[in-house]
Design a protein that fits this description.
The structure holds two protein chains of two kinds. By secondary structure, chain A is of the alpha/beta class. Chain A has four domains: 130 residues, Rossmann fold (3-Layer(aba) Sandwich), CATH 3.40.50; 183 residues, FAD/NAD(P)-binding domain (3-Layer(bba) Sandwich), CATH 3.50.50; 156 residues, FAD/NAD(P)-binding domain (3-Layer(bba) Sandwich), CATH 3.50.50.60; 63 residues, 2-Layer Sandwich (Alpha-Beta Plaits). Chain A is 28% helix and 25% strand. In chain A, the strands form ten sheets. Chain A has a five-stranded parallel β-sheet, with helices on one face. A five-stranded parallel β-sheet of chain A has the order 14-23-17-18-19. By secondary structure, chain B is an all-alpha fold. Chain B has 19 helices and one strand. The longest helix of chain B is centred in the middle third of the chain and has 34 residues. Classes of the chains: A alpha/beta, B mainly alpha. Chains A and B meet through helix 10, strand 19 and strand 22 of A and strand 1 and helix 3 of B. Strand 22 of chain A pairs parallel with strand 1 of chain B.
């Protein structure tokens, strides 16, 4: 900024305004030439131009040139939503040696042209007002620099199941220290209890043993079993955690840069009477796989040979709300695999799969085909008519099912064993959830930031989720997400420092009276603390912890808190210029 | 079909059925491509898909009361288009074998179909029994001219034949009743609906004509549906003609026998004596014999060469029928030759004994071999014609 600029009003700045046609998306409804002309006369606006596509490579280059040639110190682009192109034009600013926080994006597409297709004049008027407001905000902008914090090269992995163990090995291999915190007394989780698995028929136990062996080879991994994470403080990249270990009076303290939560799932436990659960011979999927993996030869249950098995799929999953609406993904494949294992041991065994849809997706499909060829019968029942299970006079079980492929005939299937194919449910981890402030979805699983593009990060910076604590997953998917969490941790920790957005709240210590009860309570991230300054108690906001949500700003009775990049003065100026005068 | 009480599934049905063939049918996932391509599907029929489903699920009663089993003559289009290679046409054939074994109570058909060695021994034993039984009462072999009935008394053959026909009739009536009752129940056809009045009788008569005349004797649909065959077989090799010649030949020989017996009854000529070729009984018999032997020979050649879907899977019972038919037909010609040879050859007498024994066995085993389709198919076609008539009226 040159010397002529008035620090208080921003008068004398040199602001460039670029108004985008977005092909015709904007210009078909908003008279962009009129907007341009209106802005030309705005004080401190040096450049006012329209562009066919502001985001195109060529235009970006022209904008960089214009910023340099005209010595601009502020940039406003009136185009689409900042969600789409804020980063693009911040990049333009950077390339022109202009501070990216001197850039303001004004949304005249979603908020003008698309919203007011029936009122071209009104849309144009609104666009002019919004761009003027953007100019007013830019006029008062100050250059900001990213906040640099040092990070600790260490990660805590909560949960020692397959996802956690694999993540721990990956973290150790890229040079990070690891602390595994496992609530149970042994590592391995659910997978450790599983028998031979698709496709290579290695047992879950073998695979876990392999991982534990690998963990043991890495001295940078510390294992805490019978342990629970009970507190987390500090800031991004520098967390101080406390772990309670059974039998130890003192908490174990660990300082870590990131935390990977891989706490896994629970299996659905049917109510007594749900599909006959409670009757002898009605088992859940985990009970059945244990029976299969724990025996040899033809299946025997309670000393009686099993001649016929009926599988009832989707028990406790894909239910109408408020039940579990989601699909657990693994259960179709796991059931078909178990049925193949037992079919190989007893060719006379009759197996009936009563399902809503068989979802043996991807390579699991081959198992499904093999299973049919080996004589398993698949019967699809209508969603609204689930099967029922009862005991027959001869002691066997009777499963009554409507088979859609036989013209909705209601049939009774005599069976020796009924397997309720139960899926995954979120684990009850209330304490951990509140310690880490983890976001929980409506389904009870932990939520990521973006289901596709940011699948392991959470809104809690530096805290990642991996494995089935996020959603039902197969073993390979759990491992993949564990390794994704490794990559995200590496991105944060390997540089040794992290750059944080400087759009955070700051306290004017002069104005602060130190009342602090309101602002402390308002912060969802515990970023505000009380400190003594010159013998005076005032509020202090940790820039590393603050997310810039602005929740504390209006709370402060003294107006002592301001949000950088969105200061009171900027917002007021924006509103004033929007409301000042009729546009035309 | 509406039901009030859920049916108990027979969990052993499919594995039992597989003893009769249809090894691949478990691969079926009920897509219905077979139904879409089947040239016989009309009147909203959903076979073969539905019939396969009955077998997979274990709905035995529904399977055995399906008239559709018998309308199929295994053109093989469904198997060619099946995405899972479940071979529906072979399944239909296996289901027919299973049905033949299920409609008769003795278990003989099941043995003949599912236990080839035991079945062959049983078949040989039957022939041997008839041979020994008749040879026990044999007379001298006249060396001057072939006096067949001096060797084996005509009365013995006649009354043995009558006894065999009685057994055949009893077994046939039992089997047909057993099947017809099942189909009628599943089709919702009652006795009054058939015989309750003039209109009902007329409809039943029309259906009977369609079943016996148009289809069984005329082979109409077989002829029509084979015209799409690709590549087109020359006429002498077409399945429908081979099949029709076999039927016509068999029926021709049967009627020639009756005719010859009738001529003896009215005193025109004694049975077994040489007559000129233009005699109706001899003319019919000779032509019918040629037709039968040609038809059966072609069937056997096709089975050996596995030329089509129907010939690709063969049970011992399939061969048994062909062999018995062929022997009956061929030995008939040998006897004919022996009759005209000077100085009656001794082998002529032995061939005659063989011919008579095998012919007796053929008729006796009719309800227990593939031959049984001659009883069951017309019943199914009768119900098929009734249903077609009904849907035409309601349309």
């Amino acid at each position: 900024m040159s010397e002529q600029v008035d620090a208080g009003t921003g008068e004398g700045r040199r602001i460039g305004v670029f108004i985008c046609h977005c092909g015709g998306n904007i210009s078909d409804y908003v008279d962009v030439a009129k907007v341009r002309d209106a802005l030309k006369d705005e004080p401190d606006v040096v450049v006012s131009e329209t562009e066919l596509f502001a985001c195109s490579d060529g235009t970006q280059k022209e904008m960089v040139q214009a910023i340099k040639d005209k010595k601009l110190d502020g940039l406003v682009v009136a185009s689409c939503s900042p969600k789409l192109h804020q980063i693009t034009f911040q990049g333009v600013s950077k390339r022109a040696d202009l501070n990216p926080y001197s850039y303001t994006q004004v949304n005249v597409r979603e908020q003008c042209s698309w919203a007011h297709t029936d009122d071209h004049e009104g849309a144009t008027e609104k666009a002019i007002g919004l761009v003027r407001a953007g100019v007013a905000k830019t006029r008062l902008s100050r250059p900001l620099e990213p906040l640099v914090v040092k990070t600790l090269p260490k990660t805590m992995v909560v949960g020692g199941g397959v996802a956690g163990l694999r993540a721990a090995i990956g973290l150790a291999d890229i040079g990070l220290g690891v602390v595994i915190v496992e609530r149970a007394s042994t590592l391995g989780g659910w997978v450790a209890e599983l028998g031979p698995m698709f496709p290579n028929e290695h047992s879950g136990r073998e695979q876990i043993d392999f991982l534990i062996e690998e963990v043991a080879k890495r001295p940078s991994i510390t294992i805490l079993t019978d342990a629970e994470l009970v507190s987390k403080s500090g800031s991004f990249g520098n967390y101080i955690t406390e772990v309670r270990v059974k039998g130890q009076d003192q908490m174990v303290t660990a300082e870590v840069g990131t935390i990977v939560v891989a706490t896994g799932f629970d299996t659905y436990q049917p109510e007594v009477g749900e599909f006959g659960y409670g009757i002898e011979g009605v088992l859940t999927l985990p009970e059945f796989t244990k029976l299969v993996d724990g025996s040899k030869g033809p299946l025997i249950y309670k000393d009686k040979p099993v001649r016929t098995i009926a599988y009832v799929y989707c028990v406790g999953n894909r239910q109408p709300a408020p039940g579990n609406e989601y699909c657990s993904k693994f259960c179709c494949a796991a059931t078909v695999h178990a049925s193949l294992k037992i079919a190989a041991r007893d060719s006379e065994l009759r197996q009936y799969h009563l399902h809503r849809d068989i979802r043996t997706y991807g390579k699991f499909e081959l198992m499904y085909s093999e299973s049919r060829e080996r004589g398993s019968v698949y019967m699809k029942f209508p969603d609204e008519t689930p099967p029922s299970v009862a005991k027959m006079a001869d002691g066997r079980l009777a499963v009554t099912v409507v088979d859609t492929q036989t013209g909705n005939e209601e049939l009774t299937l005599p069976a020796d064993l009924v397997v309720l194919v139960t899926g995954m449910v979120p684990r009850k981890n209330q304490d951990l959830t509140s310690v880490l402030k983890l976001p929980v979805g409506v389904d009870g699983f932990y939520n990521e930031i973006h289901p596709k593009l940011r699948p392991v990060e959470t809104v809690v910076a530096g805290v990642m989720i991996a494995g089935a604590c996020q959603s039902p997953k197969t073993l390979s998917e759990s491992v993949a997400s564990g390794l994704a969490a490794v990559t995200q941790s590496a991105g944060i920790l390997l540089k040794g420092f992290a750059e944080l957005d400087p759009l955070v709240a700051t306290v004017d210590t002069e104005a602060c009276t130190g009342c602090t009860d309101k602002c402390l309570a308002s912060c969802p991230y515990d970023a505000i603390t009380t400190v003594d300054t010159d013998g005076r108690k005032v509020a202090e906001i940790s820039a590393a912890v603050c997310k810039g949500c602005g929740g504390c700003v209006p709370i402060c009775p003294e107006n002592a808190i301001d949000l950088l990049g969105y200061t009171d003065a900027q917002m007021r100026a924006s509103i004033d210029s929007l409301a000042k005068e009729p546009v035309s | 079909m509406t039901t009030t009480t859920p049916r108990l599934i027979d969990t052993e049905l499919l594995s039992d059925l597989k003893r009769f063939g249809a090894a691949d049918v478990s691969a079926c996932f009920s897509c219905g491509t077979c139904t879409a391509i089947c040239p016989l599907v009309d009147n909203d029929a959903t076979f073969p898909r539905r019939i396969i489903r009955y077998a997979q699920v274990g709905m035995k009663d529904e399977l055995l009361s399906s008239k559709e089993l018998w309308t199929c003559y295994q053109c093989g289009l469904c198997s060619d288009s099946c995405p899972t290679q479940a071979d529906p046409s072979e399944f239909m054939a296996a289901a027919r074998r299973y049905a033949i074994a299920s409609y008769e109570p003795t278990g003989l058909a099941r043995i003949l179909y599912t236990r080839p060695v035991v079945g062959s021994l049983v078949a040989a034993a039957f022939a041997a029994f008839f041979a020994v039984f008749m040879y026990a009462s044999h007379g001298p072999q006249d060396a001057a001219s072939l006096a067949l009935f001096t060797f084996i008394p005509e009365g013995l053959i006649h009354w043995t034949g009558v006894a065999v026909m009685v057994v055949l009739a009893l077994a046939g009536v039992f089997g047909i009743t057993s099947m017809a009752r099942r189909v009628a129940r599943s089709e919702g056809v009652s006795l009054p609906a058939l015989f309750g009045g003039r209109a009902q009788l007329s409809r039943a008569a029309k259906a009977l004509w369609a079943a016996l005349g148009v289809e069984s004797l005329g082979q109409r649909r077989y002829r029509q549906d084979c015209k799409d065959d690709n590549p087109i077989e020359p006429l002498y090799r077409r399945r429908w003609l081979i099949h029709a010649l076999t039927i016509w030949g068999f029926l021709g020989l049967f009627s020639a026998t009756i005719l010859d017996w009738g001529l003896a009854l009215i005193g025109v000529k004694a049975t077994g004596t040489p007559i000129p070729l233009w005699y109706p009984s001899r003319l019919i018999g000779t032509l019918a014999g040629i037709a039968l032997v040609y038809g059966v020979s072609m069937f056997m050649v096709n089975r050996v060469r596995q030329v089509n879907r129907a010939a690709q899977f063969t049970t011992a019972s399939d061969w048994l029928l062909l062999v018995l038919l062929w022997i009956t037909g061929a030995t008939g010609f040998f006897i004919e030759v022996a009759l005209y040879l000077p100085n009656a050859p001794a082998w002529g007498y032995w061939v005659f004994l063989f011919h008579v024994s095998v012919a007796m066995e053929l008729m006796l085993l009719l309800p227990f071999t593939k031959f049984a389709h001659a009883m069951y198919r017309p019943v199914a076609l009768f119900f098929y014609a009734l249903a077609a008539d009904k849907s035409k009226q309601t349309a």
